[in-house]
Amino acid sequence: MTTSNLPLVAVSGLGRGESPQPGPAVIASLKRRWPDLRVAGLVYDALESGVYIDDGPEAAFTLPYPSCGGKILLQRIDEIRERFPFTVLIPTLDVEMEPLLGLSAELAKRGIETMLPEADAFKARNKQNLPQLAERAGVLTPRTIAVHDPAEAAEWTYQLGGSAMIKGPFYDASRADSPAQARAQASRILLEWGGPLLIQERLTGEEYDLLAVGDGLGDTLGSCAIRKLVVSSRGKGYAGITVGDEDLHRAGTVLMYALKWRGPWECEFIRTKDGLFHLIEINPRFPAWADFPAAIGTNLVAAALRQTLDLPEEELYDVPAGKVFLRHSVDIVCDATDFSRLAVEGHLFRQPITQS
Predict the structure, then answer these.
(1) Tens digit of each residue's pLDDT (9 = 90 or more) over 301-343
(2) Which end is more exposed in the chain, N or C (fewer Cβ atoms within 10 Å of the end residue's Cβ)?
(3) In 10 A of CB 141, how many CB atoms?
(4) Do 31 and 313 contact (CB within 8 A), yes or no?
(5) pTM of the prediction?
(6) Which residue segments constitute the domains of the chain, with CATH numbers given?
């Protein structure tokens, strides 16, 4: 793509707080490859801090929550495109994926390209379907049971030896070291995220992530594997180091082939003391650390955009092992009028803040 024919792109998920969202990392990677690319941030709250950073989006728009339904979401998309006629949509939040898959035909009618997998592949990697997928692909995974109430969560935690991971359908994972803790955690997650809950056998070992982009035919356009060095209380990787483990990449390759995945995903694994990798979950989007491989020469976000637009591929170099990312917090400065305009009017066109 040249400067004259760059598309307008919309990216969701711009929060960068305790549980950082992927949107700012996606935007950063896109602008590494195409500095003149114009991007709109799609947010659910004017407090999503990625709106206000210097290298953030040129515009921002509020969206209705996915639970409001497809008709309302499409209406809002049409309103946004009157002001910012984007032709590429990059969703980065798990909770958005299923509603947008249901709207894929309507989005296509509007000329909007998306980085979304096929519906069958998306369903096959759902947390409750992970055991069947792992068996089909020949990959190990912890025992996982779908339940719908706290009493079931407590009972299955007891069946799993008194300790388990309690997971929500989209977000949140809490360790329970007794049936009573499982009941309490299940009640909290059900209240916040709904069901079904996933009760997963708890394995101990080192945590690994594999970011990859699929071509929709079973092949991988590029990938980056990391071992988590620092994990937050919510299970987020706050530091990681690139690794070149052949077994880890092989597991990702067979999963990609099994699902014929299109677009980005993040596979999470635990490597137990016996050296075996166990698949924990597959997130159907870029992770919050998506710009890390781009910063060291392998821009997977740019590759995904090229694949989405059916543009010729560019060579992707293997990610070198031994590179480390460290997440840290900074204070974002913005003008109160910008924040108020986005919160009240639902849109903002902004200029980056310059430091003197």
Answers:
(1) 999 999 999 888 888 888 999 999 999 888 888 888 888 899 9
(2) C
(3) 22
(4) no
(5) 0.89
(6) 3-115+330-349 (3.40.50.20), 121-126+204-326 (3.30.470.20), 143-201 (3.30.1490.20)
Confidence of residue 356 (pLDDT cuts 50, 70, 90): very low
Q: Quote the tokens at residue 16.
A: 């960068």
Own/partner long-range contacts of 152-159 (Cβ < 8 Å, ≥24 apart): 152/197, 152/199, 153/182, 153/183, 153/185, 153/186, 153/197, 153/199, 154/179, 154/180, 154/182, 154/183, 154/186, 155/179, 156/182, 156/199, 157/181, 157/182, 157/199
With CA atoms as reference, report the closest residue to 229 among 145, 327, 152. 327
Specify the amino acid at residue 264.
P
Measured distance CA(129)–CA(136) in Å, rounded:
11
- Which residue has 């690794």 as its token pair? 243
Find the angle CA(212)-CA(222)-CA(267) to the nearest 5 degrees: 15
Structure tokens at 335: 């003008």
Long-range contacts of 216-219 (CB under 8 A, 24+ apart): 216/117, 216/118, 216/260, 216/261, 216/262, 216/263, 217/260, 218/256, 218/257, 218/260, 219/256, 219/257
Q: Let me know: does 1 contact 34? Beta carbons within 8 Å.
A: yes
